[in-house]
Amino acid sequence: MASIPLDFLVTALVTLIVVVDPVGLAPTFLAVTEGLPAAARGRVGLRAALIAAAILMGAALIGDWLLRTLSISLPAFRIAGGLLLFSIASEMVLGVRIARQSRDAEQVVDEHVRNIAAFPLAIPLMAGPGAITATVLLASRANGDPVRLGLLLAVIVLVCAACFAVYLLATRFGRLLGVTGNVVLSRLLGVLLAALAVQFVIDGVRAAIGAV
């Protein structure tokens, strides 16, 4: 029976926890789910965690091969994610997202749950360029060892489960803030999310220029 490589396990766990930053995602989760009932917020958190886990697992198994095959660079991925994230942030700041939800509550909530779980929560916040890069690098360190690769997949599941747990706690916190508090928080976090999106683009451009 092969021994468990604890050094690889600890490295993978610490790396992905730091890069994904479940606690740091809580304010953004509250902002993008503003106006949704608690049950819908729970569905968003669960769906986002499942999508992110699937993406990162795919990155661990075939990520490096896929990016090389499609000739897609991580700087390009970062720039695209930043531009899309900025569009979401602008809607949060201007209140467009909230107004859209009020047109037809049930239909819009169902559509909203599917949309925001995939973007921006799963991509690019949870499974963004940084997390994908870290996962690909960790998979390369496994050197094809099935034990190490299995540990990496387990760590991905654990980190995404931690994100889901944080989302549930954030929902309770949002309930304490009330309607006015949530609206104010949404506007403020929208500005911060816009800044994060711009930083994604800047980092992507720098990396692209540096690679030339």
Which features does this protein show?
single chain, 212 residues, mainly alpha, 0% strand
Order of helices and strands: HHHHHHHH
- Taking pLDDT < 50 over at least 5 consecutive residues as the criterion, the unreliable ranges are 100-106
**Biggest β-sheet description:** none
Q: How many individual β-strands?
A: 0
Give the amount of beta strand, in percent.
Answer: under 5%
Describe the 3D structure.
- The chain has 212 residues and is an all-alpha fold.
- The protein has one domain (6-211).
- Helix content is 89%, strand content 0%.
- It contains eight helices and no strands.
- The chain has helices at residues 6-20, 22-32, 38-70, 74-94, 96-101, 105-126, 129-142, 146-211.
- Helix 1 packs across helix 8 and helix 7 (129-142) packs across helix 8 (146-211).
- The longest helix is centred in the C-terminal third of the chain and has 66 residues, at 146-211.
- It is globular, with a radius of gyration of 18 Å.
- The termini are far apart.
- 34% of the residues are buried.
Would you spell out the secondary-structure blueprint of this structure?
Elements: H1 6-20, H2 22-32, H3 38-70, H4 74-94, H5 96-101, H6 105-126, H7 129-142, H8 146-211
Helix pairs in contact: 1-7, 1-8, 2-6, 2-8, 3-6, 3-7, 3-8, 4-6, 4-8, 7-8
Structure summarized in a few sentences:
The protein is mainly α and 212 residues long. 89% of the residues lie in helices and 0% in strands.
